[in-house]
Amino acid sequence: MSFFTRLILILILAFLEAIVVSLPLTISALALFVIYEKNTKEIYIFGLLAGLFLDILQVRTLGITSALFSLIIFLIFLYKRKFIHENPVFVVLAIFLPGFVYSYFVYGEVIFALTWALISSFLVLVFANLWKKISPTFLVR
Amino acid sequence: MKKLIVFLFVSLIIYTADRTGLLKIPKGTLEKIFSFQIIFPALPLGGPQSQDLKILREENLELFEKLTNQRNLELENEALRAQLGAPQRASAKFIPARVLEANASFLIIDKGQRDGVKLGQNVVYKNILAGRVVSVSENRSRIELPISSTSKIPVKTSRNALGIITGGGGTMTLGNVTLSETLEVKDLVFTAQNGEFLPDLLIGEVSKVLRDEHALFQQAQLQSPLDFRKLEMVFLIP
What we know:
Chain A is an all-alpha fold. Chain A has helices at residues 3-20, 25-36, 40-57, 64-82, 88-107, 110-134. Chain A is 79% helix and 0% strand. Chain B has helices spanning 2-19, 24-33, 48-82; strands spanning 95-102, 106-109, 122-125, 128-136, 141-144, 152-157, 162-168, 171-178, 188-191, 202-210, 217-223, 233-237.
């Protein structure tokens, strides 16, 4: 997938997250990109833009979410080197934990954060697998 | 590590610029572009029953509103009798606002500084408290709901028991009510006079009383007549 296709996909997810559902879809999708992506700079750019977009839609001070996304992206990259990054356990944890941290940061409630992070991880993984079946080059660059 | 520092630094610059108001124009423009409300049409799965339920909910809200008004009139009447000639409170001019987003902690509405919204303003729907403005930008505001985990509201019940409502897990809990006070199911709960909330705004009714004789205080679970996630319109009290 090209840079712009992925950027648009991330921005659509950010829009859905802010207006339609309260699931942490953006960070889960970013985490998925981090796991399969080698070009770290692009993902930081996605994180920055999606964070700003979410801040605008949710009336937060601009820059807070971008900073949080940058930190989460960095941590996943850091742990990706230590684990076999296509190990299913690592993939699930690397998508679920950022969603949980972000939801807790936004809503301040553990139970909601857990539920939404679980649903979001599940949706992102199902969507990624479906897309991979349709287009085998998905997430491969 | 280098990239993290660069992007954190960029975020920090944007944060500072926003706090100082330098990004007011581009932010306001983007807010306006994305300032539309998405309403999903109700699926006709429930048929006439779901329509009846909607009508009943509306009627229920109207009854709550009438009940609140009646109680306020009684209070006002008592006060006037006690102090003849006391000035009546000027009728408030509400600012109507559309709800752009609603979730378990907050609402985002389509009115901001430009429309005269200020931090701390109380938000109601049919005289029932929907929350308080906690963040304002040029064209939008964020409302903290009473069910939010960060919300704390000093209240009094229809039997004049004083307490504090805390939110969390999508519900409200009334706490800090001394054991000597009477607390019963179906008691109405109103905001008490304090700096953050206007007095006598209905919040909900007691749905369950949790009394432990060994504890210092009694607690109760509250139910709001409003379904916060389904609110489409709210009103800000100036």
